[in-house]
Input
Amino acid sequence: MKAKERTITPLPHPPLNKLRGVWSSRSPLLLFAIKSALAAGFSWAIVSSLLGEEAAALAVVSAVIVVQVTSWQTARKSIERVLGVIIGVILAVLIAHLFGLNFWTITLMIFSAQIIGMFLQNRGQYLATQIPISAALALLLGATAGNYPLLRMLGALVGGLIGTVISLLLSPPIYIFRARDAVAELMTRLAAAIPRLAAALAVQLSEAESREIYTHIRNLEQQVRATEQAYSLGLDSARLNPWARRARRLLVDYPDVLLALDRLVRQMRRIAYTINEPEPSWSEIVQKQDWALDYARLLEEIGSILVSAAGYVRSPATTQSSDLPERETLSTCMEHAQQQLRILQAQLAQDAKQIESPTDNAANPSISAGYRIAIRGAILTDLRRMLDEVHDVVEMTSHPSLSKQVEELSER
Output
């Protein structure tokens, strides 16, 4: 079959690009506000016509509380609230019926509710806190309004049900695509940091700039954690979501991608740490050493491959820019980088055999040749591991099946 022709995606105008960024960041909040408002409105309309305004007010409160950003979280909180209210109300009714309302019964009831909540805490934090609250309200307000315990249970049940239904109906898979964008953004930032790390490796930056590179890489490690949280939210949004049946397939490879990126940034930090060792300074170690430039070029090549992989994650197959290389070209780049690594490893082995040569240390007699060999070996090991992780990322992100899934979702 003839390959699908790639088209060049025109760059958006800056104002439009800014509006898209604002919409992308604010749309989840807007959707959450809409779901909460609709759940509250429908709860009032339905319950007030069936059970009266007092029960409707409790249903509105329950609906607003249970609605969360994803359908799964909403259903879970709704179940926890209903169970917590039922357990708390039953406990309050039993104690009030047996012992009446006084200092000791209130103390006993709250103590019992807290103990029950402690045992059920592993089932849900909200369930544990809802039991003593519902028990206290049912006991105290039930003394003046005899039907309050029943109304509270009905309000929790109906409000939770309506909130869950609204959340199911209004749950587009935006968090799945936000997880995809977060992974692509992480890959892009890692790739952008690699050339600076290569410049520091080649002693093209000052000592202060090299230290900034190390700090920046530590910040990238924190972004890995934030991306993992975005993935978890995307995974949550795919559960109990009728609109995410196709989109959830995009999340299959992301755990492995994130694991590879986490290992990649750790290797980058190791190289940055080696460069910033105080004694001896990196500039003294690599003085008149051609291998530092060779290692820096390999590092830059790894970064360019990672940039292309990020483009495959971010761009749908139907709108991929012609700037993205073909998968065969990307594989060729990987093979070339691996070949360069093997050449550098062979050079290191050859230099290690000549470690006793008196000319090897002529540039800086204070630094032993053996120390340089050890440093080169450590950095080459980090580069090899980085290349392995990037290879895994490329295999997972540029796989034709992934692009086909994105294309199907874009056409829907």
